[in-house]
Specification:
Number of helices: 20
Strand content: 5-15%
Distance between the termini: 75 Å
Strand order of the largest sheet: 2-3-4-1-5
Shape: globular
Length: about 425
């Protein structure tokens, strides 16, 4: 076997029994395992972090059922490639032979027209589509295609699962087992791999290759210090497919939340230089505008939504300017998480009290029987009263008078608080 073949490829599982991780999907009697063993494979999308086995699972399915396997990368393929592959699949349809599998890596990067070109082939059963994505399919896959596919969520590998992979690499790989490898410390191996099997294998290879000479009897000891040293030499400062992806977006969000526009644009620049998906950044800004700026500056959500729309239309590199403007605007805005706290408290109230009945006076009464039962009786229509307001209880009786929204101490919400006090009198006198 060629030594220049990556360790992750050399150790790629060929069967489900060799596969490590995703027990909730492929463990004994798990949903995806039952489907695979039945041989009746529907189109589906695998959504999860890098290095969790998406490509491997697709290949195992094809191998176990002798299915013709086509693969496309959304990064390098266009509509023309999709159509050519579908034509090839049509030519492979013989009698009762199962239809070919088309595996599309990073399907979230396919444009709408590229995804549209798949619809007919999936619907007619010309191909069985297996898509792989690291992004939420609800945002990135068009509804007609998503409705034709089941979505299975993969999880980052646990430390226990990484331990199994480490054991397999050092004791079973035809190349590495020639050396006496001692794992003195493994904390940093696991920490830097971030639950990513491929990254764990890459780190092991880097450390081993940095130490070996031509003699196959060399002893190799892996320590935290060696792992750190090697990674500083070989791994880029920003990896949009690994743990720094999450660390840097976290730093970006916390900088904006903390009111620091300088740090915000610095972390934004790190993501821009690392080739991050601009829509990923824009989505996080929309969430932050509602969660952290909120009612202290309601225009923030409008700004963030406009940013997202503009980024979708413009693309790189100009989107960096739009993202910079939005990030600075949000960082320098007054902050409030009152809306976020209110919905959290309301959900907690629902969990504690269950399905409380809607008060009769505010129930809908579309039929005569419902009216006779008192639905909608004595409802006070606010617009019939002075100032378009009348005091009435809208909460279920059991939690009557409960306050779930608490305005915070910023100009906008202090105005809201005063209005609530004028309306509800003693209810907001605190």
């Amino acid at each position: 076997m060629a030594i220049n073949q990556p360790l992750a490829d050399r150790l790629r599982p060929k069967t489900l029994d060799e596969f490590i991780g995703q027990e909730h999907l492929v463990g004994q009697d798990a949903v995806l395992r039952r489907i695979i063993e039945s041989g009746n494979i529907p189109s589906f999308i695998l959504w999860g972090p890098p290095g969790t086995g998406k490509t491997t699972l697709a290949k195992i399915i094809a191998n176990e059922h002798n299915r013709i396997f086509f693969t496309l990368s959304a990064v390098h393929s266009g509509v023309k490639d999709v159509r050519e592959t579908i034509e090839k699949a049509k030519k492979q349809r013989f009698f009762d032979a199962p239809n070919p599998i088309l595996f599309i890596d990073e399907i979230h990067r396919f444009s709408k027209s590229q995804q549209d070109s798949l619809l007919s082939a999936v619907e007619q059963g010309i191909i069985t589509l297996i898509g792989a994505t690291t992004e939420n399919p609800s945002f990135e896959v068009i509804s007609p295609l998503l409705s034709r596919c089941q979505v299975y969520v993969l999880e980052s590998l646990s430390e226990k699962e990484l331990e199994k992979l480490l054991h397999r690499a050092t004791l079973e790989d035809l190349y590495l087992k020639k050396y006496k490898i001692t794992i003195q410390e493994k904390n940093d191996l696991f920490r830097y791999s971030g639950g990513d099997a491929r990254k764990l294998y890459n780190i092991i290879e880097l450390v081993v290759n940095s130490e070996i000479a031509d003699d196959s009897g060399k002893e190799i000891t892996i320590t935290n210090e060696k792992v750190k040293k090697i990674l500083q030499q070989h791994i880029a400062f920003y990896d949009k497919n690994a743990d720094q992806h999450y660390d840097i977006i976290s730093a970006f969000i916390k900088s904006i939340r903390g009111g620091d526009p300088n740090a915000a644009v610095y972390w934004l620049a790190r993501m821009v230089e690392g080739g991050e998906d601009p829509k990923f950044i824009a989505r996080r800004l929309v969430i932050l505008a509602a969660e952290d700026v909120g009612l202290a500056n309601p225009n923030a959500l409008l700004m963030a939504n406009s940013c997202f729309d503009a980024v979708e239309r413009i693309g790189w590199p100009e989107s960096r300017i739009i993202l910079s403007e939005a990030a600075i605007y949000l960082a320098t805005s007054p902050k409030s998480n009152s809306a976020y706290q209110a919905i959290n408290d309301a959900q907690q109230q629902v969990k504690q009290t269950g399905d409380l009945s809607v008060p009769l006076n505010i129930r809908n009464a579309p039929t005569k029987l419902m009216k006779e039962l008192g639905y909608g009786k004595d409802y006070k229509y606010a617009h019939h009263y002075e100032g378009n307001f009348v005091q009435e209880e809208f909460l279920p009786e059991k939690i009557s008078g409960r306050i779930l929204y608490n305005p915070q101490n910023n100009k906008k919400e202090q105005d809201i608080l005063q209005r609530l006090k004028n309306w509800w009198k003693n209810k907001y006198n605190y």
